[in-house]
Design goal:
The complex is a heterodimer of chains A (328) and B (548). Chain A has 328 residues and is an all-alpha fold. In chain A, 77% of the residues lie in helices and 0% in strands. In chain A, helix 5 runs parallel beside helix 13 and helix 6 crosses helix 8. Chain B has 16 helices and 21 strands. The chains are: A mainly alpha (328), B alpha+beta (548).
Chain lengths: 328, 548
């Protein structure tokens, strides 16, 4: 197992090295990060622009800039940002936490709902329950998340106005000013989570539930389930131990593959609800043509990919005896 | 159309000239009570804390930091510039040769830590923007500061007597923010204190009505009353500036009561959004920045003044205004000058006088034919008989109005046989393409905060933004003269002469001012659209909850 993990990490590092170079080059060639400064009215003195070029290393070839960035990144220094007073590492760290808070809540709820809905739909295949759950899932898959978010915000505002109490919040992860006291603060943060969590949950629940339904249907048709039935095992035991458990492998894979993308930026949700997370950081960095900032984001995202893929491998071990015995 | 009160719109767009002399840029401030809080949204947190550095000198930062500094002059809702008598006793040119300006600071004017605001603060603010004194200071603007030859004072330090080596006509634009010299000294030398000390650190002192009580990076800045404030008493106890990147999301947050006020550019979408809201007041007004087309004055075809003039004649400014901002601002007025916005003192109908921008298709065709151009099957041919090549209109894809303007120009030019294609460039290509001269017609905007000198940056021979290859001895002469003219009436006359010279050359077609919007909970009052680049906080001490 350790060898497997080691191989995975080594492969990931190689991929990371190549991808960082490609992304750095693309961002560096995408436009002039000082374009806005050059376009000011009245014009900014040439000496200032020159000083900024030197500070950002724009007077160096892209390959040299990449090498400088790589050397710094290894030591934990992500290099200068286009935003002069922004320390990239210090800016990114709290954003990782903000995104984690949003995504973790949504993932847990979406995964539980998807497992339940997918399993029920498969067990009630081609019956009204299945049709209802499947239709709901297809509608949610078809809904653009941006539109769903805007719709939910307006619904939240309408409920707030009708009830005369602000239950739903449309921007940020906490009120301004933040409530005093631990409990009110937690309650306020939880209230800010409601709408963005619903958006993220709905989108992912829908697609994951379809995977789960397919996996359970396939599992139901497998030989070991037929054998379990012939052995006279109870329905609950058959479904729990012989149908659902092996059917978890595909859904674990799908969730594991989706997690890094989610973690690295639930971009649309963060944008609509104005959460200062990873997604917003990426958008701002790209808009500013801030190559170093984009690279920092990429590193965090890449680490997330490696971590969650490893996590998926470990989960296979836990849920599928064939993997354990195969390795043994 | 927006749901603003008609009287307010009229006040904002008609730019009334009657203003209270005592530093109140508000046109019609109403009674408010003391106390209360407000949350104002802003799209950007401060890029740094020094609003006169190149990085810090952006619209949102200027507006957020205005309440923290002393300012010699204020801009009214009518765009008139007046002495800030809360800070100064007077500010005037006392000698024309050499040019000497005297500022007299009020005795009561102190920083929030009790340190008097004196000539030392002026000296520091001048030095960091003068490359002769500080070559490494990253100042946004150095013009005028580099002409200062001496700064003298009296024994109190409250007199600031500045001598210029050469007259500098827009002297009122100098020192928009007076920096605290005594704080800067604690950070090190000029460059270190300016580029790092004052830029990286939350301001320790304030010379304005409010001071920073707390700052949460990228989330909120909390301002409280400056206890040592020497001007008209501020009313609100706390003002929080909350960072919400999109104006659309700001308006939704206002609708939900999460913030109290929104200030920013008005678009069809945002105006429709506020139009559907109850319980808010809406102020809409023009700014000193206006949209315009600038025409290339060099190259194979645009070097011909006749062609440029015909294009400028055929374009219809009023029609473009009506079809763009006119869709959501009932009283939007087209520009009649490239030097003054509608309603501003000094404005003359220079487009009318030169016959430009009136959509005069027959006149444009006659002008072309007189120079040997011909129309063959509706397509314009040059005097040598060859067809005129397609012209390129460079516009900015991020700004829907500029894209729409390019499309309207394309349609209007077709009427005189000119085929134009639109290059809608994104942020990475728009300015580089303009700088490289990769266009025939450039859709852009100009801020008139520097008056005639705002035109100099584009149209003076060899100017920093002269992407057009334009050079005119007459225009250069007028710019040289207006830049050293200190008499207001003469400045207006010269500026209009310069304006007419540019329009007659077919180098610019002014369109209409950009429109700003203040939307706020109707419980508050005295929040106005300020046409200057410093924004709505210019009268922040007057903001408050309505008295009744």
């Amino acid at each position: 197992m350790l060898v497997l993990i080691g191989q995975r990490i080594l492969n990931s590092l190689l991929i990371l090295l190549v991808s960082t170079f490609v992304v750095y080059t693309l961002v560096a060639l995408a436009g002039d990060p000082l374009g806005e400064l050059r376009d000011r009215q009245p014009p900014v003195p040439e000496s200032v622009i020159r000083a900024e070029e030197i500070r950002l290393g724009l007077d160096q070839p892209v390959a040299v800039r990449y090498a400088t960035w790589l050397a710094g990144a290894v030591g934990g220094d992500f290099g200068p940002s286009v935003r002069e007073n922004q320390n990239i590492g210090r800016e990114l760290a709290p954003r990782v936490w903000v995104t984690l808070r949003l995504v973790t809540t949504a993932i847990v709820i979406a995964a539980v709902l998807a497992l339940a809905a997918g399993t029920v739909a498969a067990l009630r295949r081609n019956r009204p329950t299945d049709h209802l759950l499947s239709t709901t899932a297809f509608i949610l898959i078809a809904l653009p998340s941006f539109w769903l978010a805007v719709l939910l915000k307006q619904l939240g505002i309408a409920i707030n106005k009708a009830s005369g109490t602000r239950v739903f919040f449309t921007v940020g992860d906490v009120s301004v000013p933040a409530p005093e006291g631990w409990l009110p603060l937690m309650a306020d943060m939880a209230a800010h989570l409601i709408l963005p969590t619903i958006v993220l949950t709905m989108i992912h629940f829908a697609s994951w539930s379809r995977y789960q339904r397919t996996a359970v249907v396939e599992s139901l048709a497998s030989d070991h389930v037929r054998f379990a039935v012939l052995r006279g095992l109870s329905r609950a035991r058959i479904i729990g131990a012989h149908v659902v458990r092996p059917a978890l492998i595909p859904i674990v894979t799908v969730i594991a593959l989706d997690l890094p993308a989610l973690f690295s930026g639930a971009i649309i949700t963060e944008t609509v609800f104005q959460w200062r997370g990873m997604g917003g950081f990426l958008l701002e960095s790209i808009a500013n043509r801030d190559a170093n900032a984009v690279m920092a984001w990429l590193l965090v995202a890449a680490v997330a990919v490696v971590f969650f893929n490893l996590l998926a491998d470990l989960l296979y071990l836990a849920i599928d005896p064939r993997v354990r015995y195969g390795r043994g | 159309m927006p749901s603003y009160r008609p009287a307010r719109l009229l006040a904002a767009l008609a730019l009334p000239l009657a203003l209270a002399p005592l530093a109140a840029p508000a046109a019609d401030a109403v009674a408010v009570r003391d106390g209360g809080e407000m949350i104002l949204a802003s799209t950007n947190p401060p890029p740094n804390w020094n609003p006169v550095t190149a990085t810090g000198d952006i619209t949102t930062n200027r507006q957020q930091q205005w309440p923290l500094y002393p300012h010699p002059f204020l801009t009214g809702t009518d765009a008139a510039v007046t002495v800030n008598t809360q800070f100064l006793v007077s500010a005037a040119v006392v000698s024309q040769d050499p040019m000497i300006v005297e500022y007299v600071i009020r005795d009561e004017a102190v920083w929030s830590d009790g340190t008097p605001i004196t000539v030392e603060d002026f000296r520091y603010t001048q030095a960091v923007q003068d490359p002769r004194a500080c070559a490494d200071c990253k100042a946004a603007f150095t013009q005028g500061y580099d002409l200062v030859s001496a700064i003298e004072t009296n024994d109190t330090g409250k007199l600031v007597r500045i001598t210029f080596a050469k007259p500098f006509a827009p002297w009122k634009t100098l020192f928009p923010y007076i920096l605290p010299a005594h704080v800067a000294r604690t950070y090190g030398d000029l460059a270190t204190s300016f580029n790092s000390g004052l830029a990286d650190n939350v301001p320790k002192v304030s010379g304005g009505p409010y001071m920073v009580a707390a700052y949460e990076n990228g989330v909120v800045m909390t301002l409280v009353k400056n206890p040592a404030w020497y001007g008209n008493p501020a009313h609100l106890d706390t003002i929080r500036i909350r960072y919400i990147a999109s104006v659309g999301e700001q308006i939704t947050a206002l609708q939900n009561g999460e913030i109290d006020a929104v200030y920013g550019g008005a678009t069809l979408d945002t105006v429709e959004q506020v139009n559907s809201m109850d319980g808010v007041s809406v102020e809409i007004g023009p700014t000193l920045t206006y949209y315009h087309f600038s025409l290339k004055a060099s190259g194979d075809v645009m070097g011909d003044a006749v062609l440029r003039q015909a294009i400028a004649r055929a374009l219809d400014i009023a029609d473009m205004t009506r079809r763009t901002v006119g869709q959501y601002v009932e009283s939007a007025e087209p520009m009649t000058s490239a030097a003054y916005i509608p309603g501003q003192a000094g404005l003359e109908d220079n487009t009318g006088a030169t016959g430009m921008g009136g959509g005069d298709v027959e006149g444009a065709i006659a002008h072309l034919k007189a120079a040997g151009y011909t129309l063959v099957d509706g397509k314009l041919h040059k005097p040598d008989g060859t067809a005129l090549r397609d012209l390129e209109i460079l516009t900015y894809s991020v700004d829907p109005i500029r894209v729409q303007l390019a499309e309207l120009a394309q349609a209007q030019l077709a009427r005189i046989g000119i085929t134009a294609f639109i290059d809608a460039a994104d942020r990475s290509r728009y300015t580089p393409d303009a700088r490289a001269g990769n266009f025939d017609i450039y859709t852009t905007g100009t801020a008139l905060d520097l008056g005639a000198m705002s035109l100099a940056q584009w149209y003076q021979t060899g100017a920093a933004r002269n992407y057009f290859g334009y050079s005119s001895a007459e225009v250069d002469r007028l710019i040289d003269e207006v830049s050293v003219t200190l008499d207001d009436a003469r400045t207006v006359a010269l500026t209009n002469e310069l304006d007419r010279a540019l329009l007659a050359d077919g180098i610019i077609v002014p369109l209409f001012p950009t429109i700003n919007m203040a939307v706020y909970d109707e419980a508050y009052a005295n929040i106005f659209v300020n046409p200057s680049k410093y924004g709505t906080t210019m009268n922040v001490e007057e903001w408050g909850l309505k008295a009744d």
